[in-house]
Write a structure and sequence with these properties.
This protein is α/β, with parallel strands linked by helices and about 325 residues long. About 35% of the residues lie in helices and about 20% in strands.
């Protein structure tokens, strides 16, 4: 009998915390701590891991911007290429760190009891519709802040970019954030799961691609919300549980107020009711809004439960001892 299938979505704090600079030493330390928590759930679950890439892709864009001027004059690469670069970077770190822990302490492989469970990474494309309205209304900020003068210069150099003023803090480039419709490599992910691997896939929301009339795909300048892409991945691999690991121990009503109230267990209908009433407070202005949208979508699409908690509480949350559990 197969073990339950669990998709774990790692937020940025699982790799770079708070005000950290994002050095490789910091990322290795953070991922090691998260990998130790994942190790606790591996014996009872088949596992797929997905992750964000905000700090890493931002760093790549900064580096390309710095290298695009004299004397180097290197080309600035499109967003889909940047996303692929971060999938390789972060996937390698998770694969290396978790893989070493599995080698030392992991359970045996289901198909070959003489070997330990192994982890592998797939560079993952995520299909979006070329008719998605997001392409007509870019809203997702990417890359560094610019002064007004820098923004004008970039507009001249890259007329295809959309650059807007961002809340009085400077100017930033914005790109479309279309809805994910399909994990293009879902068959490969499922075959690796059948073979007993832990799979890292869909990192950074996936590499956004559109399908052409001849069924080929091509990358587009966009960023897919990582939580919605994680939900799509969870559905496409028929996961029972979708665990979203973030920078809070659980979901709160009236977040960031004296009346804040943590939620232990809640149904999909209750979440929707609270959303309609605005009862989650300022948390929706940050990253909780997309997480709740992804949770509602996963339950609607047939998932059994969603867990929202911090990385260090992941194992306890899956046993109902911590975090927020959302059910049908």
């Amino acid at each position: 009998m197969l073990k339950p299938l669990l998709v774990i979505a790692l937020g940025g704090n699982a790799m770079i915390k708070g005000k950290q600079r994002g050095t490789i030493e910091e990322q290795i330390e953070n991922i090691t701590e998260t990998a130790k928590q994942i190790m606790k759930v591996v014996p009872k679950n088949r596992v797929v891991i997905t992750h964000g890439n905000g700090p890493q892709v931002g760093n790549i864009m900064l580096q390309m911007e710095a290298g695009s001027h004299h004397p180097f004059n290197r080309p600035v690469l499109p967003m889909d290429i940047c996303g692929a670069m971060t999938q390789g970077q972060i996937g390698y770190l998770i694969q290396n760190i978790l893989g070493n822990l599995l080698l030392k302490e992991g359970p045996p492989s289901r198909l070959n009891p003489q070997e330990k469970i192994k982890v592998t990474t797939i560079v993952t494309q995520v299909v979006v519709s070329k008719d998605d309205p997001a392409f007509q209304n870019p809203t997702k900020p990417v890359g560094p802040f610019y002064s007004k003068e820098q923004a004008e210069s970039i507009r001249t150099e890259h007329p295809e970019f959309t650059i807007i003023e961002d809340a009085g803090r400077g100017y930033r480039r914005v790109v479309p954030s279309p809805d994910p419709t399909e994990i293009y490599e879902k068959d490969q992910v499922n075959k690796l799961l059948e073979a007993g691997f832990i799979v890292v896939a869909g990192g950074g929301g996936g590499i956004p691609v559109i399908k052409n009339e001849d069924s080929t795909v091509q990358g587009v300048e966009a960023v897919i919300d990582k939580d919605l892409a994680g939900e799509r991945l969870a559905v496409d691999v028929n996961a029972e549980t979708f665990a979203i690991l973030t920078d809070t121990d659980r979901v709160y009503l009236n977040y960031n107020t004296p009346n804040a109230e943590g939620i232990n267990t809640i149904t999909r209908a209750e979440v929707q009711k609270y959303l309609d009433e605005g009862a989650f407070g300022t948390s929706l202005k940050g990253s909780m809004g997309p997480k709740l949208r992804a949770a509602l979508r996963f339950i609607k699409d047939g998932g059994k439960r969603v867990i929202i908690t911090s990385p260090e509480l992941a194992a306890d949350a899956l046993e109902g001892k911590a975090g927020t559990t959302i059910t049908p």
